[in-house]
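User: quick one, sequence for these tokens?
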């Protein structure tokens, strides 16, 4: 993009937004914010607010980093969850996540893991011996999956130290997921499964820090995947709920989602959109 076009877009499109917005819209929140949702998502440019289909202003406190990692932005999250007291913490990963794939490449090359609390220690680069030995060995009667072969090609050592440091903590959840890839047998689903495993781990971390608020029913932690490749269904662009407060059994997840919707008195249970919501729970509260 030329710099001129950047200025053009910025000035012209923002002016349109400013003109169509009423002053009363701004005065409602000009001196405070009261978002009900904190969303932690990946910095990936393919994820933007409109995928949720909502006007997000003053509704969503957004924190973003590579791989939607809870430990990377503890301060911002603590502010949103304990000062602004948002009732929902939504951790949103996505399909074909570069950070997840990068961490998978590092795991397969057997690069030393960095724990969340140890990220000041130096990063150990991949050695030639490690590269040759191939790190984690995936053994299967049907041979190595195509996904694993492709992930082995990720050149982790080419990344800067700063990038490595930020991504390496992801090897912890990714190593959990990687051993199961051979059983799935579909490349799109296999990569999505790694993102899903990462979201499960991030929900687990969030429960470590904010589990008390969940027990007191002040907070619900929801994990999800934005699927723009059609890994969960043939419909691309769907956001799929994969975890609620650490629950990841598909049937229990759907049951929980139904209970939450039924208990909400602000939803008109006789409406067509509620019937649609119940149908979509079966399709979009799901797992690989
Ligand atoms: Zn990503």
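Assistant:
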């Amino acid at each position: 993009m030329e710099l001129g076009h950047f200025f053009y877009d910025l000035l012209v499109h923002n002016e349109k937004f400013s003109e169509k917005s009423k002053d009363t819209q701004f005065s409602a929140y000009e001196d405070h914010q009261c978002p009900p949702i904190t969303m932690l998502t990946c910095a990936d440019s393919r994820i933007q607010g409109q995928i949720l289909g909502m006007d997000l202003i003053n509704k969503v406190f957004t924190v973003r980093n590579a791989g939607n990692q809870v430990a990377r932005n503890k301060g911002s999250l603590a502010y949103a969850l304990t000062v602004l007291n948002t009732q929902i913490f939504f951790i949103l990963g996505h399909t074909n996540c570069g950070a997840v794939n990068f961490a998978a490449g590092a795991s397969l090359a057997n690069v030393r893991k960095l724990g969340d609390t140890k990220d000041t220690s130096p990063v150990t680069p991949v050695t030639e011996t490690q590269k040759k030995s191939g790190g984690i060995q995936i053994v299967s009667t049907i041979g190595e999956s195509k996904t694993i072969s492709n992930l082995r090609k990720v050149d982790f050592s080419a990344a800067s130290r700063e990038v490595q440091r930020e991504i390496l903590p992801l090897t912890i959840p990714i190593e959990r997921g990687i051993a199961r890839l051979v059983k799935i047998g579909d490349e799109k689903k296999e990569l999505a499964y790694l993102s899903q495993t990462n979201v499960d781990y991030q929900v687990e971390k969030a429960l470590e820090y904010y589990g008390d608020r969940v027990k007191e029913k002040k907070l619900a932690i929801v994990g999800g995947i934005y699927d723009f490749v059609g890994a969960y269904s043939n419909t691309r662009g769907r956001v799929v709920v994969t975890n609620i407060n650490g629950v990841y059994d598909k049937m229990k997840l759907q049951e929980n989602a139904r209970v939450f919707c039924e208990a909400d008195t602000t939803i008109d249970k006789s409406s067509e959109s509620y019937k649609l919501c119940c149908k979509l729970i079966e399709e979009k509260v799901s797992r690989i």
